[in-house]
């Protein structure tokens, strides 16, 4: 039986390995992690991440050919193929602070692999890393290898959270990069055989190592760029009376452009887009390409602008002050169908409103109160000026309540902000919400999920991203 071990039981490692185990009964898959709590959760009824369909997949294979363990060294030592899926946050100190990837976890994983290996291994880069990381990892492995042959492959994961299982079952493509040597080709072939259990071979793309690493950064940068492009146009729509939904549709029906990823929003979040673009920016700067670096930087700047534009709109439309007003925040995760809040626009929006002394009542179906409070009290790292900003003051944090019921969150509120596009928000009893709110009752839809016409009919004043303004809002001074 071929043995696969994956280091890192997170959002990428966990679901990917579960699907490999399901689709390849002849392979024994073990996911290891240094976090005992995470491994315990993977072995329990309550998985550590919320992902539609994942529980089903894990239950079918766990204990058969899928295992979760903290005994990192034993399982790495025994494996034929080791996937590395550890976290690669942005560096907050030293050279490249604010942009470069912090490869500490990666390096320690590589050193451990070199230490415990007694047989030849294929080491697969799964976490997104800067271009040429494979070269550094190769050096660490081969200089400590006691004659063992290591082949490094780059196999970046393209799954999106909330649709991870669907994406893994039916990927647009699987990308495998390797050394262009006969040993390298053999290693690529072995990994291709794993995916070929369920992915059509024409969708398995094989490239050189650097192309695979760069393609992942470039794909995320292109996706984020589409959102920043549409969000930039949304600001112009609000100023002119055009409707972003109509514009996006018209633009997206050009088959050269395509319809997906053109939804205007309060801004993109998630662990990948900002981090990967910053990484790309840093690589460009290090390679003497400041113009290219600046080009990509602006994708993040527009994202920051979109978040602050949203906060400004809330404050300015509520008579230029939200001080002591109760504002309901519906949705805190960075997108629907996940409990993940990394880089969620909700953090910046909430901080902005708290800065104006609002009282916040937050509801999200998958994010716990502890988690939200931790996110809001953590100091933020400003990517553009690599300094730590002051954390929220304890007085500001006291203005936050987390509710487990939408109607509690919105009761007596002056305004409601939709920050995540959870499906359940489309089915709310808006008449009940309106009746229980202070008047005038405002709705700020950061995801364009509510039926603004219906809500205006009930009596709400509605602000949607990139849509013609509520006639009531038109009379107010324009915001930047
Ligand atoms: C463009 C739009 O495509 C068309 O829809 C609009 O109505 C008018 O403007 P056009 O300028 O005629 O049409 O040609 P297009 O095929 O878009 O090419 C424009 C330029 O981009 C050309 O110089 C072309 O060589 C270049 N190009 C195009 C690239 O460099 N790379 C590409 O991948 C595509
Ligand atoms: C992304 C990539 O899609 C995935 O391929 C890669 O492997 C990891 O990064 P993820 O961050 O999980 O996945 O979610 P994604 O669906 O890409 O959404 C990212 C953010 O963009 C979310 O905050 C989402 O709400 C926002 N978004 C997405 C928009 O604002 N508008 C859109 O049209 C699409
Ligand atoms: P991603 O979204 O890329 O999957 P996560 O942060 O969710 O990232 O997961 C990365 C996991 O890797 C974490 O659970 C972390 O504990 C684990 N990890 C980091 N370094 C090591 C290591 N040296 N050995 C084992 N696990 C590690």
How is this structure best summarized?
This protein is α/β, with parallel strands linked by helices and 480 residues long. It contains 19 helices and 16 strands.
Biggest sheet character:
8 strands, mixed
DSSP helix fraction: 40-55%
The helix-and-strand class reads alpha/beta
Amount of beta strand: 5-15%
The whole-number mean of residue pLDDT values reads: 94
Low-confidence parts: none
Distance between the termini: 62 Å
Small molecules held by this entry: uridine-5'-diphosphate-xylopyranose, adenosine-5'-diphosphate
If you compute it from the alpha carbons, what radius of gyration comes out, rounded to the nearest whole angstrom?
A: 24 Å
Count of helices?
19
Overall 3D geometry? globular
Strand order in the largest sheet: 3-2-1-4-5-6-7-8
Q: How many beta-strand elements?
A: 16
EC number: 1.1.1.22
Keywords: NAD, Oxidoreductase
Organism: Citrullus colocynthis (colocynth)
Family: Belongs to the UDP-glucose/GDP-mannose dehydrogenase family.
